[in-house]
Amino acid sequence: MSSDLLRASRAPLLAAALGAALLDGGAAPRFYPDDPLWVDRDDQFDATGVAEHELSEIWDLLENSAPRRRPADPGRAHNVNTLDEVPDSSWFQNRIGRRELSLEEIVRGPDLVPRLEVEEWVITGGKGRPGFQPGFRARDARTGALYQLELDLEQHQELATGAEVIGTALYHAIGYNVVDVYLVDVDPRRVRIDPEAKQRDASGRRPFTRGDLDEVLLLGRPNPDGTYRMSASRFVGRGIGNFRHFGTRPDDPNDIHPHEHRRELRANRVFAAWLNHDDSRANNTLDALEERDGRRFVRHYMFDFGSILGSSPDRWWSGHAYMLEFDQALKDLFTLGFRLRPWQRVNDPRHLPPAVGRIGSGAFDPAAWKPEYPNRAFDNMRADDAFWAARIASRFSDAALRAVVEKARYSDPAVTDYLASTLIARRDRVVEAWLPAVNPVADPQLAADGTLTFANAAVDAGVATAPAAYALRWSRFDNARDALVGDAVEQRVETARAAAPPEVLAEAEYVFVSVAAHHPDHPAWSRPVHLYFRRVNGGWQAVGLERLPPEA
Question: How far apart, in Å, are the Cα atoms of 271 and each of 134, 308, 364, 392?
Fold first, then answer.
């Protein structure tokens, strides 16, 4: 069971449970006293020994683009708790998915200050890798804080810097670790270069010069006062490279779940499709060595959102195709390039201002969306992973999305209007695609008087009508043997509310109920959701939820 993998710090209890299980013929309890776990304490082992590494972009592209067989069923995500939720960890912190966030919280995101004011920048080196946006690394001469400064290209003023701000705020509210990002106006007259600053080019590492700074600024367009609009992303901890979307980091003792089986990485496909984050690859992640209570651990960040929202204009395939598609290349060869793919017939909204990238909603198909090249975690996403993510997306109100877009401070109101309406429409498409794709029963509660209530996430989001009835099947549950006991009691109710059979509840420590729905438009709803409750303090606590994916 997935939650068992979260218990690395509870070896004595697990050993005792294993011993009891062996005496009982091999059965093991399904639930432990602290289930459901809401914190994965994956910072318990000191990670001082991790080494910095650099991932080759070319190698990452080729390694992930190589033809391979996708798993028919990758199985349930490894890091979900017994309620089928993702606990807080060094990878993810539950935010809007578990609690209400105010507009102010969503817009502020990870920012430490409302507005970053820096009197003098000290360049410490070039960007770690060239990327789409020109820029450099610099520290605040007063505080010493280190930032990555990136500039909009002259022909696309405000495009990438706006995307950086929007992506950071949304990914933070979703629950990912992101660094604080600010819009700043950099005055070249208040920039100096550290004598130790280095720049990397084709010949290797060399000193960063004033000419290098001039080359960066020449690619942008100055403001009327001579300053340059740039995004400033603060560095945290000690950067030790990127994380991949498969396998584990062998030098990190806390990294025990293969990344392709982490739900927050699988389900990021939903968020990436919503925001057209086609550059959602390993090179846009960051592992940082941080310290807490005298112990060092690795925190994992999503980093660099400058190319979301279609903000790389030259990537005309953005969101529609992989960079390398060998089968499509052969077809293009045999048709001499005259064959048009469906997405090439979609009108490109070039009538919009240059600050708008290649993103629209009219032809957006979430299920068909693709990143720049294959992502193994995305390939492993199951319907239950997508459901989890779509519920989070559904919690962003229209007002919240518009407020986040306004944070980007576009000079043209038409850009703000277009991006806000597009994000709202794409959110709706994501929710429509993935909430009804599984049985959407959620948030179960069993009151002390035996009244069961639950939500139907698809109905609540307005993307499905209510089923005519729900079919329930109640049983007592023997947790020690992980088995149903006694005769099952069946019920049929017309609403998301039922009275538990008294004979099932009587003197039971655990009870089980499966909930299925029969809907002519949603056959997947007939696969039941399994719910488990534990008696506590005269009432009942929901401790288990198992959502079965649709049958193949």
Answer: 26, 11, 13, 9
Q: Are strands 441-446 and 451-456 parallel, antiparallel or unpaired?
A: antiparallel
Is residue 481 within 8 Å of residue 509, measured between CB atoms?
Answer: no
Domain boundaries, the chain: 1-34, 36-434, 441-547
Using an 8 Å Cβ cutoff, are 235 and 290 in contact?
no
- Which residues share a beta bridge with 451? 499
Assigned token pair, 14: 């697990």
* Phi, psi (deg, nearest 5) at residue 20: -65, -35
Q: Which has the higher per-residue pLDDT, 103 or 324?
A: 103
Q: How far is CA 137 from CA 80, 98, 108, 148, 235, in A?
A: 37, 36, 23, 5, 10
Residue 190 and residue 234 in contact, taking contact as beta carbons nearer than 8 Å? no
Contact 505, 487 (CB under 8 A): no
Question: Residue with structure tokens 């990294």?
Answer: 255
- Specify the DSSP element, H or E, that contains 263: helix 263-266
Number of CB atoms found within 10 A of residue 107's CB: 18
Residue 372 banded pLDDT, cuts 50, 70, 90? confident
For 332-350, the pLDDT digits (tens) are: 656 556 566 666 555 555 5
CA dist 376 and 56 (Å) reads 17
| DSSP secondary structure of 103-124 | HHHHHHTT-SSSS---S-EEEE
Question: Is residue 120 within 8 Å of 190, Cβ to Cβ?
Answer: yes
Say if CB 271 and CB 174 are below 8 A apart: yes
- To the nearest whole number, what is the mean pLDDT of the chain? 89
The contacts of residue 99 (CB under 8 Å, 6+ apart) are none
